[in-house]
Amino acid sequence: MTVDNVNGADLEGVRTQAPAPAGATVPTRAPGRWLHYWDAEDTLQWETAGRAIAKRNLAWSIACEFLGFVVWQLWSIVVVFLPAAGFSFSSAELFWLISIPSLVGATLRIPYTFMVARFGGRNWTIFSALLLLIPTLGMAWCVGRPDTPFGVMLAVAALAGLGGGNFASSMANITYFFPAREKGWALGLNAAGGNLGAAVAQFAVPLAVALLAAGTVGLPLAGLMWVPLILVAAWGAWKYMDNLASAKSDIAGSLASLREPHLWILALLYIGTFGSFIGFSAVFPKLIMDSFGPGVGIDIGPAVISLAFLGALVGSLSRPLGGRLADRWGGARVTVACFGVLALAALAQLATLALGSFPLFLVLFLVLFAAAGAGNGSTYRMIPMVFALRSTADDGGRVSAARKASAALGIISAIGAYGGFLVPQVLNASRQATGGYAGAFIGFVAGYLVLMAITWAVYLRPSSAAALGKV
User: Fold this and answer.
1) What is the end-to-end Cα distance of the chain in Å, rounded?
2) Based on CB atoms within 10 Å of each CB, which residue in 17, 179, 219, 392 is the most buried?
3) Which residues have a Cβ under 8 Å from the Cβ of 2 and sit 6 or more positions away?
4) What is the reported pLDDT for 400?
């Protein structure tokens, strides 16, 4: 097939090339930047034009997803500064402001997964990026008015969950652009780039609201500072990204995966790994303030609060490491080890909280974040392996397993994100009941040990079918 110009809009990167070799399908562009005849598995297409197109779409997808994570985690750092800005919310109310974005974001991940096929990856990326203006501008308006009622503040915080949904649509979109042999790398890069948004938000916001406001608490800057970047990202998606006509939603595969018992087991494990990462990322700044703030320990300032970004940073960077270790040793073994480290880190934190040592507190939390991040990668790697083992020996069974595994990745990522709501609320319940966090950490230790036992029993126990396949 030759290059097909539609209304004179021929494909960038292809227009100056010689005709494609025989047997290669050349993608063509229709108005609205819709690509037809896209086939990432076609080696000739991939090497002549496909790779450059896919990388361009990946780059802008990461930029938009990164800002989604930024917005998703903004309230985790803003709540720490609300008392200084004149707000008199209770500790329980602050925990709700921290956790409600995760609850909404986790819920939105399910419908967001299907939006790419319905509206086009480029179109939905532009729209979902522009939606981020609502929670950022809403935050700027609310935090600049200390008389804002808690109900209004909670509703605006819930809108930050729009950023959490972006992950699902971004991952679904990039899946269509890359061949199977490079899909893992592309999805890992996309996920890590997004996760880093949490770290950047927690590093930049404390410095901006204190330093750029000339010594005052310029809290509206926490939302306003991201508006120009959101506009640039949306413009980049409009200018450089593409819609794929071949992208199709697999509703049947999703329904079939929901009937698979292992989906729910793996989702539970993902709550323990990714849920721990996003949950502790959200609550880490408040834990620092509550444990070492004025009248408790050291004199906390913006520079110290900004150290909370180290947790999200370590967790993000350790995710691909967990995937790499899983490739070598098996995802189940690495996941068991990660839950073991999580339990030990939580136990050590429980035993040393009373010492009032900020360096020890920080180091132990960084160990916890590293284990959670690595567990994200190893658990995610287990999903396609488990579904492959559940397939039958015939070709139809393998195809069915692949479809269910693809659908399960989106569903499990959505369920795992509910951990971002559960972790802060467990800590909130402990503080309300006992005045401290010891009870919550006892619960975390017990939870990690149970999840470690489940992983071993289902996927590593010699008599289990999964163990034979070295999941």
Assistant:
1) 42
2) 219
3) 19, 20, 26
4) 56
